[in-house]
């Protein structure tokens, strides 16, 4: 599969896989952004992509950013019909402000196939052993 990428900013960095066999490709900041503790920020990548029909791009945390600095990716569903700039929403759950410098890794994007379903209203749903149990009902 080929992922077409358009630079919307000539200084933007194209996505890339850090290692062969990685599931996610790295997305990079196209400008410096300070993410204040407890606040949400939008990180511009300066690129747009053409996700093929039948697929979706999913944004995920970079593990080092999340574990070491508390940077959590928000949202993250990139539909195949979208052609605008990729902007990554993040929140700083850490204890110090974090600075994304230009061309630093922000998030990783996975391309995955999508199954479209038909939606049908039902008066009843099938019984299962779990039933309506949720919110910790399966134990620790």
Describe this structure in a few short sentences.
The chain is mainly beta and 140 residues long.
What's the structural blueprint in terms of helices and strands?
Blueprint: E1 4-7, E2 25-28, E3 33-35, E4 40-44, E5 47-50, E6 55-60, H1 63-69, E7 71-74, E8 77-78, E9 87-92, E10 98-100, E11 105-113
Antiparallel strand pairs: 1-5, 2-11, 3-10, 4-9, 6-8, 6-11, 7-9
Biggest pleated-sheet summary: 4 strands, antiparallel
Work out the helicity level: under 10%
Strand and helix order: EEEEEEHEEEEE
> How many strands?
11
CATH architecture grouping: Distorted Sandwich
CATH class group: Mainly Beta
Tally of DSSP helical segments: 1
CATH topology label: Deoxyuridine 5'-Triphosphate Nucleotidohydrolase, Chain A
Task: Point out poorly predicted stretches.
Answer: none
Provide a descriptive summary of the structure in words.
This protein is 5% helix and 36% strand. It is mainly beta and 140 residues long. The chain has a single domain (4-113), classed as Deoxyuridine 5'-Triphosphate Nucleotidohydrolase, Chain A, CATH 2.70.40.10. The termini are far apart. The relative contact order is 0.25. The mean pLDDT is 95.
